[in-house]
Design goal:
CATH architecture of the largest domain: 3-Layer(aba) Sandwich
Bound molecules: adenosine-5'-triphosphate, zinc ion
Number of domains: 5
Helix content: 25-40%
CATH topology of the largest domain: Rossmann fold
Distance between the termini: 50 Å
Largest sheet: 7 strands, parallel
Strand content: 15-25%
CATH superfamily of the largest domain: P-loop containing nucleotide triphosphate hydrolases
Number of strands: 31
Shape: globular
Amino acid sequence: MKVAAVLIPLPVDEPFDYVVPDDMALARGDLVTVPLGPRQMTGVVSEVREIPATNRRLKAIVARLDLPALPAATLDFLEWAARWTLSPPGEMAALSLKALRHAPPKPPLRLHRVAGKAPVRLTPARAAVLQALDEGPTVASAAELGRAAGVSAGVVKGLVDEGVITARPAETGNPLQAPDPHHARVELNPDQAEAAGQIGQAALSGEFVAFLLDGVTGSGKTEAYLEAVARLLEGYPQAQALILLPEIALTQAVIARITARFGAAPAEWHSGLTGPRRRQVWDAVVSGHCRIVVGARSALFLPFPNLRLIVVDEEHDGSYKQEDGLIYQGRDLAVARARFESAAVVLASATPSLETLGNARQGRYRELRLTARHGTAVLPDITLLDLRADPPEPQTWLSPPLRAAMAETLARGEQTLLFLNRRGYAPVVLCRACGHRMTAPDTDSWLVEHRYTGRLVCHLTGFSMARPDTCPSCGAKDSLVPVGPGVERVEEEVRSLFPEARTTIFSSDTTPDGRSARDLVEAMERGEIDILVATQAAAKGHNFPNLTLVGVVDADLGLRGGDLRAAERTFQLLMQATGRAGRAERPGRALLQTWTPEHPVLQALAAGDRDSFLATESEERRLAALPPFGRLAALILSGDKADAVEKAAQLLAGAIPNAERLEVYGPADAPLALVRGRRRKRLLVRADRDVDIQAFLRAWLARVKLPSSVRLSIDVDPYSFL
Ligand SMILES: Nc1ncnc2c1ncn2[C@@H]1O[C@H](COP(=O)(O)OP(=O)(O)OP(=O)(O)O)[C@@H](O)[C@H]1O
Ligand SMILES: [Zn+2]
């Protein structure tokens, strides 16, 4: 008899076996409906095998779905990704199938005349209807057509009943038009042309090649990889390309550039799409019709049959790391996916991660460099403002030199970006009477005040509450005061300093979706905003031609974090933020406010000395054998009952297998020991680079049976140390 192993979205390590009915042809990759208890689920066939008759009581597959099978390389990739991240393979595979929950959008109906069919009785009213139908624009309803003809809808309905007029689905054409590589070709400079040529050629070769596209901000990395896509499509029109971006606002900007470049909009893929649209894109991808997809990390799981090029733009960006549900590093999975597809992959950044630089230096990635800004644009001058010498006035955040620079910029009719990576009004709310800090009731994190909404918000869990009038701890009235600045508070200061300036905030609170982000970016591009107060939403990738001043409100902010990548992340973020200035004809400058101007990260930024910063940082990591010179994995246990979590942690700690060149730290309370009412404990594994940390983890976990009240999440290569 034939048995199929089917991957279904359940938290188990193996596929489930089902009997294949005799009349069903089934192969790896096919999508099927299978019974599970009283339910039916959609799954992917991982394997079909012949077995001797058995008395195992196996259920049978209900149906094979009338959909294209997952391409072989897609499925290979998904199964590998599950092993790599120690995730249930069925849940990993389900990431590829999420869009199937929806039906594609139905095309709207349009009224047409039925050829060769005349009305039995041609009254003047009926003649008017037919004339309106022949002459007017197409319409969907009888009422609409009646209005156009100046008669009642009943007349139209009569004609429909008689079969003279009929409703048919509109010809909407292909919702995804084919890109034209010749549409608006850009003249590249020699470095850009070299990069585009190498990438394009690799993509056409059908072999796996990984590139680091390392170019200063504004050097034309986007221009270069778009040209590589063009060359690929020229040489192989059926090829598919995937461009990953870390931020929805940036996605919108790149979509606009692709549309201008190729004369057709690419498909977008991110959480903001409607269900039917997702399904439409999924169908177009799996059938191969869709050539260019631009999206968030989840686009990695789309079933491309012909994927030849993957671009990971701003590859250093932390948001490629998925931290909820299945935990994975999107950038790393992109490289793996390219390997399974025999495709080219481009990691692009002005501030590459140490991981990627390490891979390039060791020859695993080919390095392409763009060393200058395009045309006459030059990199901005970066100056550190020592707040010890020039402090802002009490309860304000902008120092006199920064205020003066803003006034000059405004007087010249140019734009300023004030960068502060903190949403809301104030990061902490404190009671003046007793010193109590407002925290979320069931989470170890401070509540952030948001003035626009008048609420106190936990940025970790989304919990929010109205701002109370009295201190919940001591009961004092009107004693709660905001401490420190967020973007809303800086905006307030800017408005009082420059009431005539057009000032706007750019953060995920003010631009929660693609459309609002695009509107804001376009307003900034058109020069309709003088001063933009922004979180990291604006630090990445944007081109604002008239922006000549970037002020960093608190350059010390990220340096206090103290986790593995704090220095690296701060350097990258500030370099990106300052890189927004002076990208067109007018030169730009960046002023960084700091209390610690001697800090090596800030010194390197001011000197524009990326390479020496990276060398120092890299040497420290090497000495400590930390990533990228070693591997890390975090195990986080959580549960409602503190003692159950504690016991599970002890169980794990007691079962650590012997291993060389590997250490386990903990268990310890996670830095956020309480989240949404759940207690959390953490163990951290460090291993040398050549140790198979996944194999170690599997061996370890096989030795313990954790109580079902405790959840274990495994984070291979953790970025957040919360
Ligand atoms: N060859 C070229 N011809 C015309 N304009 C160019 C060319 N190369 C770059 N530009 C322009 O220079 C600006 C910066 O280019 P682009 O956005 O591609 O740089 P980037 O390296 O991707 O920037 P970032 O790292 O800051 O995201 C854009 O306005 C772009 O259109
Ligand atoms: Zn109090």
